[in-house]
Amino acid sequence: MPATGPCRRPEVAWRVIDGEAIVVNPRSGLVYPFNPVATRCWELADGTRPEETIIDTIVEEFDAPAEQVRQDMRGFFQMLHEKGLIQPTEGSS
Amino acid sequence: MGACGSCSGGGCGSGGTPIQIGKPQESAGGRVIWAGTGEPGAEQHIGVGLGERLEQSVPNAGIRVESPEAKEALRRLFMKVEEKKIPLWTHIDLTYKCNTDCIHCYCQHLDSSFGGAYDKKDLTTQEVIHLLDQLADVGALNLTLSGGELFVRKDFFEIAFYASREKHFALTLYSNGTLINERMADRLAELAPVAIEISLLGATAEVHDAIVQRPGSFDRVVRAVGLLRSRGISVVLKTSIMQPNFHQADEMARLAQTLGSRTYRSTIEITPRNDGNTGVMQYQLTDAQMLDYLARDFPSPWPYTEPVPLEEARQKTTCGTGTVACYISPYGDVYPCIQLLISMGNIRERAFKEIWEAPSELRRKLEQIQSYGDLPDCKTCEYVQLCNRCHGLAYLETGDLTACYKLALRMAKAKTQVNAAVGTQQG
């Protein structure tokens, strides 16, 4: 079933330690330490949640300004995509 | 495959613990000839609105830190890992069984069904899977699967895919390369390990095959590297430099480069077998050969280190074995690292977490050793600055993990001599 939202690539390795994820792209051999907000996004990016749902969750959980979070997260997911950490979602370019 | 240079810059950190960011990546007796991911911008620091996000090359491939922000973030992270004693780097030998018979191999298989001396059995598929569940729960991330030859296990892919897809481990595989065919290479490409590390023990079939004692092995290794590289899999070739292949040291480095090895590592450290048998040490280089090897400008010149006063040199931290890395044998025994073979417990009897976190005499001893100055022989040694001793190998050599590790001392003497000569040349 195609993902309906941002979805971690299955081969990407990761572990959360004290609320901060260490993410490894095995194909590029690069390690990405995430801060707590990015970590929460990453945990939610399992392909079952549309991007907007993830944004709403972050706004609620981190009590952050919605517009700022929306803008930051779009850039964040774009970068995850460019770095091969998440797979394209249905309808994405 | 075992420890044929296996600890070079890897999790066990015999060349310096992984938390020592910025330290030159060098195994206790080896040199990282070249290292890197080959990806442009590997050292970039990319800021995003959500906060810092950094990228860095995988430690096993040789940390290269250029961005101060990346260095700081990784330092913080590894401090946390160390403080919590999370075995972020874990090495499991799935079996000691092997289809080759390397003359210098440290492995001593004990499975009587394979000609071993004892009736020890490899962990079953389900036991390994249960172990992976437990390791993921305690935070292990970088998982090295090795042997023996790991591909002799029929359930290898079942275990590896479970580790990667279900438990999100970053996999590094050690193999002798001889069993990798087209079909297996396809599956390995699908698996997407961080790297497959393969031993190259000669620049010609004559030398390589004599060391592994299986004709045709060299050709199979060369073919395997081609199959893996053509599928975009990162290959790391590594060499134990010893008497039978010393004369081909430069040619092996050239060949590794020609074959497309992402990183090439060599070590001159031939260690006793796991059972303490020192017979294999006959293949160690002589002092003169060691000096000759370290002094060579090819493929990279010796990196000069400014000498510091002895008092300062003795403050150098020792390896952090038993904190951020661990080793698990095919029989389920848990050790602080692949070289320090003092069992902490067996996962067939107790949960991994219980074994890892239990206070013990070994833990107490290891925690008392923070720097070279804490070791009786090292605190009076004039070669300590360029010494990379290993608790485990000192233990194997002498039965005392705090003792002088003689091979490291020999190497330190050679390094000190080479370093002084390079310093004089550089004025």
Could you explain the architecture of this structure?
The complex is a heterodimer of chains A (93) and B (427). Chain A has 3 helices and 5 strands. Chain A is of the alpha+beta class and 93 residues long. A 3-stranded antiparallel sheet of chain A has the order 2-3-4, with helices on one face. Chain A has a two-stranded antiparallel sheet with strand order 1-5. The mean pLDDT of chain A is 86. In chain B, the strands form 2 sheets. Chain B has a 10-stranded mixed sheet. The radius of gyration of chain B is 20 Å and the shape is globular. Chains A and B meet through β2, β3, β4, α1 and α3 of A and β3, β4 and α1 of B.
CATH level 1 class label of chain A: Alpha Beta
Shape of chain A: globular
How many helices of chain B does DSSP assign?
13
H/E element string of chain B? EEEEHEHEHEHEHHEHEHHEEEHHHH
- What is the count of β-strands of chain A? 5
> How many beta-strand runs of chain B?
13
Short recap of the structure:
The complex is a heterodimer of chains A (93) and B (427). Chain A has one domain: Outer Surface Protein A, domain 3, CATH 3.90.930.
What attributes characterize this protein structure?
heterodimer; A: alpha+beta; Outer Surface Protein A, domain 3; 3 helices; 41% helix; B: 427 residues; alpha/beta; ten-stranded mixed sheet; two-stranded antiparallel ribbon; 13 helices; 13 strands; globular
Helices and strands, with pairings:
The complex is a heterodimer of chains A (93) and B (427).
Chain A: E1 7-8, E2 13-17, E3 20-25, E4 30-33, H1 36-44, H2 51-62, H3 66-82, E5 86-87
Chain B: E1 30-34, E2 45-48, E3 51-54, E4 56-57, H1 68-83, E5 89-93, H2 125-138, E6 142-146, H3 156-166, E7 170-175, H4 182-191, E8 195-199, H5 205-212, H6 217-230, E9 235-240, H7 249-259, E10 263-267, H8 287-295, H9 310-313, E11 325-328, E12 333-335, E13 345-346, H10 352-357, H11 361-368, H12 391-398, H13 406-425
Parallel strand pairs in B: 5-6, 5-11, 6-7, 7-8, 8-9, 9-10
Antiparallel strand pairs in B: 1-10, 2-3, 11-12, 12-13
Helix pairs in contact in B: 2-3, 8-13
